[in-house]
């Protein structure tokens, strides 16, 4: 117990929490945009891999870091386009299409990586984002600009979602697309736009891993972070503020387990510590999700004129 | 007409191939390797390097598959066996039963597999990374270099191949510095450098000033925070010239070359190639100190050199301990 109290007062700990949370914030906001528009996007895991790869490759080939972020977003957007083609236009199964995109994006990234780098002994490195030492805010000054971007996106998306006509239409299309159509708004285009924007965020979330948290691309380095976002959005009840909270909560448990594990003296098996963030998140999910209101039209394809 | 000439050409080609193929096979051994991880992974990169070297010398034809899932391993083994490869190298840690079954069904093919198990007659040999000796030596240096008497270790999973190196390293550190304590963290993944880095940063925040870099990401944390790191399996000093003090290197060349010689001579049989990874056979070594040549105290360098001589002459044996290492620091 004392250990945990000490952690709470430790600046390094909170720096780590925010750093671990950043890709989850991007990813969860991305899922939020898709699902608020009524579309499940299980392509997230693969889109994060693709974003991590193309963002890193751009910088490796001489582009600037921010260009890398843009290319990662573009990559995400392209896969989002593909997903919307499959599930909005055609309406295919959203589960199958999403998982298919994850497999496709992951394999394509690995394939391109191997074709580009057939003979490397250890993965090539780039110069990654530096910490913002110029910032006079304690914990934030030890983060990279991408974390700032993630944090800034939360109120921005909240504002667009709840204070603009576009946001109203977006929320409505996830609840009752017929009503949106009756207002003369194109459901297909709105959903496509939401998926493309959401997938772009997922791409940036992946790029954080290769451009800020680390400086080279590894196979499997996304390591399930995308799936965590899919769960976090339920915890967040599809709200941006709560999404931020959920991502930070998960990161809190993860940062804590790394610290408790190292000084636990092996009293408990290390697997228990590794489990901790997942178990506690599931627990939190159970408590919170009972009140969670799903977007009513989630996973219901919209076919014009169908009754 | 056209069709006939095509057929004729094809027949000629076949004839040419059938003449040239056996002749070719006599000079070059057809080798296939099957890896469960990408060839950049430290462990596999050493095997890949040794086989590539043999290929560059013109001794073998070399094909490989990387990132083969355990569920696909048996199928890929069979495919390579059917394609006429005579020597198959791989890692059967997670697929022992299946790999051994395949080996039994292809008695004419020689198998050399990374394995914690025993060889299986007549054609299934095993190897493993027994590099606890240089790990011990690198530990001696680490023990001398730490000022806080706290050493951090971040690993993927506590499997024997990781544990024995960590224990060798810890024993070495204790020899030069009995007061030293260890932080041990496992991250539950082979490929999550951001997470390995987080774990390392957490240990550094608690006072560790020498990091044992079992995973990618640990040296990066050490570099960022200005502490030292000890490399493992590969030499990464050129990427971290002011961070990586010493590295315990694994050389697969002695293992591969000995096995290739046996395959060529037709004398390959089920053997344990493990000892070819030891220092005596140059299967492992302490990397040159390089940028830290002048920074490591002379008495420590001498102690390490003496210990190395004792290991080589057989007077000192580093204990192989495959149990899971635990944190000793609070």
What does this protein look like?
The complex is a heterodimer of chains A (307) and B (330). By secondary structure, chain A is mostly helical. Chain A has twelve helices and no strands. Chain A has helices spanning 2-8, 11-36, 44-60, 65-89, 94-116, 145-163, 165-175, 177-182, 187-213, 225-235, 240-262, 270-289. Chain B is of the alpha/beta class and 330 residues long. Chain B has two domains: 27-127, Rossmann fold, CATH 3.40.50; 132-251 and 283-313, Response regulator (Rossmann fold, 3-Layer(aba) Sandwich). Chain B is 44% helix and 18% strand. In chain B, helix 5 packs across helix 6. The radius of gyration of chain B is 23 Å and the shape is globular. Chain A binds chain B through residues 10, 12-13, 16, 19-20, 110, 114, 120-123, 125, 209, 213-216, 218-221, 223, 254-255, 258-259, 261-266, 270-271, 274, and chain B through 37-38, 40, 42, 45, 49, 67, 152, 158, 183-195, 197-199, 201-203, 205-206, 216-217, 220, 234, 236, 239, 324, 326-330.
């Amino acid at each position: 117990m004392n250990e945990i109290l000490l952690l709470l007062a430790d600046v390094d700990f909170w720096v780590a929490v925010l750093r671990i949370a950043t890709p989850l914030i991007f990813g969860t906001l991305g899922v939020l945009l898709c699902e608020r528009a009524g579309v499940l996007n299980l392509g997230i895991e693969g889109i994060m891999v693709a974003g991590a790869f193309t963002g890193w490759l751009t910088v490796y080939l001489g582009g600037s870091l921010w260009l890398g972020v843009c290319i990662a977003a573009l990559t995400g957007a392209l896969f989002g386009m593909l997903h919307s083609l499959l599930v909005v236009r055609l309406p295919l199964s959203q589960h199958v299409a999403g998982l298919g995109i994850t497999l496709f994006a992951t394999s394509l990234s690995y394939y391109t990586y191997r074709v580009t780098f057939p003979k490397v002994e250890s993965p090539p490195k780039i110069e990654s984002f530096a910490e913002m030492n110029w910032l006079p805010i304690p914990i934030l000054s030890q983060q990279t600009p991408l974390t700032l971007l993630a944090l800034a996106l939360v109120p921005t998306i909240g504002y667009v979602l709840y204070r603009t006509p576009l946001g109203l239409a977006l929320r409505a299309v996830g609840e009752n697309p017929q009503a949106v159509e009756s207002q003369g708004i194109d459901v297909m285009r709105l959903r496509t736009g939401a998926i493309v924007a959401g997938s772009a965020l997922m791409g940036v979330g992946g790029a954080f891993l290769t451009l800020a948290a680390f400086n080279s691309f590894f196979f499997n380095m996304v390591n399930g972070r995308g799936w965590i976002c899919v769960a976090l959005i339920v915890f967040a009840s599809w709200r941006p503020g709560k999404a931020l909270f959920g991502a930070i909560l998960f990161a809190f448990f993860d940062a804590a387990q790394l610290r408790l594990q190292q000084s636990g003296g092996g009293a408990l098996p290390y697997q228990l510590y590794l489990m901790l963030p997942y178990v506690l998140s599931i627990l939190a999910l159970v408590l919170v999700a009972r009140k969670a209101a799903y977007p009513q039209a989630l996973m219901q394809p919209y076919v014009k004129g169908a009754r | 007409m056209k069709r006939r000439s095509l057929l004729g050409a094809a027949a000629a080609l076949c004839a040419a191939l059938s003449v040239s193929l056996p002749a070719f096979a006599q000079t070059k051994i057809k080798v296939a390797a099957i890896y469960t991880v990408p060839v950049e992974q430290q462990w596999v990169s050493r095997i890949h390097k040794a086989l590539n070297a043999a290929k560059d010398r013109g001794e073998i034809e070399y094909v490989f598959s990387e990132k083969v899932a355990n569920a696909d391993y048996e199928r890929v083994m069979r495919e390579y066996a059917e394609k006429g490869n005579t020597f198959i190298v791989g890692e059967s840690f997670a697929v022992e039963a299946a790999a051994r079954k395949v080996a039994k069904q292809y008695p004419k093919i020689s198998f050399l597999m990374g394995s914690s198990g025993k060889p299986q007659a007549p054609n299934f040999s095993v190897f493993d990374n027994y590099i606890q000796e240089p790990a011990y030596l690198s530990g001696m240096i680490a023990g001398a270099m730490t000022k806080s008497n706290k050493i951090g270790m971040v690993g993927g999973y506590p499997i024997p191949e990781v544990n024995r190196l960590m224990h060798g390293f810890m024993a070495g550190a204790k020899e030069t510095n009995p007061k030293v304590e260890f932080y041990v963290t496992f991250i539950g993944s082979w490929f999550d450098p951001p997470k390995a880095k987080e774990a390392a940063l957490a240990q550094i925040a608690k006072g560790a000033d020498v990091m044992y870099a079992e995973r990618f990401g640990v040296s990066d944390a050490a570099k960022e925070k200005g502490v030292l790191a000890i490399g493992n399996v590969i030499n990464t000093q050129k990427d971290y010239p002011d961070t990586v003090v010493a590295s315990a290197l694994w050389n697969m060349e002695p293992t591969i070359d000995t096995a290739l010689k046996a395959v060529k001579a037709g004398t390959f049989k089920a053997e344990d190639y493990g000892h070819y990874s030891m220092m005596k056979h140059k299967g492992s070594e302490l990397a040159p100190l390089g940028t830290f040549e002048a920074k490591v105290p002379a008495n420590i360098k001498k102690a390490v050199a003496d210990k190395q001589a004792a290991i080589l002459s057989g007077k000192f044996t580093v204990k192989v301990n495959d149990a899971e290492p635990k944190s000793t620091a609070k």
